[in-house]
Write a structure and sequence with these properties.
Elements lengths: L9 E8 L10 E7 L2 E8 L7 E4 L4 H13 L3 E3 L9 E3 L3 H28 E6 L2 E9 L6 H12 L4 E2 L5 H13 L5
Antiparallel strand pairs: 1-2, 2-3, 3-4, 5-6, 7-8, 7-9
Length: 185
């Protein structure tokens, strides 16, 4: 999950997104955590307005500390197409950071869903630096996967990496790299 602002003290938990209601901004609710402690509820109605952050009971002091922490972060530079071609510089606020985190978490969740759909239904493999799959072959229908994968390797004539044989996070990173064109990190 990538955001413009690099930090690890403020996180979101229990993110719920109403994609159908998102118009100008992401419509969501979430719990804001500061150093792992739930401190506030955040919500945005998705109509282009601000994100509202309300302290949980007894957490006003911690919310103030979180706001102070966000103000200490370096400004964000947004590369938007503008007439003067200068990047837009924005001071970081807690609601801005929460918006970034919610957007990044939601995008990652959507990517993870697409990956799970692909890896669960297709025999995906990397050959010659390209992500490929076998048409008409459902991964779930293969009874003896090790034997099938061995015969697939033998037919390819060169080394391949079969995503179904990798750990889920490793397979996701490789899939994401090829689908999004990301460079390995």
């Amino acid at each position: 999950m990538e955001t413009i602002t690099q930090q690890d003290r403020i996180t979101l938990n229990n993110l719920k997104v109403a994609d159908f209601a998102s118009e100008e901004t992401l419509c969501f609710t979430a719990i804001v955590e500061f150093d792992g402690i739930p401190i506030a509820e955040a919500r945005n109605d998705g109509h282009g307005g601000s994100t509202f952050v309300r302290a949980l009971q007894g957490q006003i002091a911690l919310l103030a500390q979180a706001e102070e922490f966000t103000r200490s972060l370096p400004p964000a530079s947004l590369d938007l197409e503008r007439e003067d071609e200068e990047p837009l510089i924005i001071d970081i606020t807690l609601d801005f950071l929460v918006d970034q985190l919610a957007g990044a978490m939601y995008a990652e969740r959507k990517l993870r869903t697409a990956f799970n759909r692909d890896v669960g239904n297709k025999v995906l493999f990397i050959k010659d630096g390209k992500l490929l799959f076998l048409k008409g072959i459902k991964l779930k229908a293969i009874a003896d996967r090790p034997a099938y994968f061995a015969s697939l390797r033998a037919r390819q004539g060169q080394p391949i990496v079969i995503l179904a044989e990798l750990a889920p996070d490793e397979a996701f990173a490789l899939w994401k790299q090829h689908v999004l064109g990301d460079k390995p990190r």
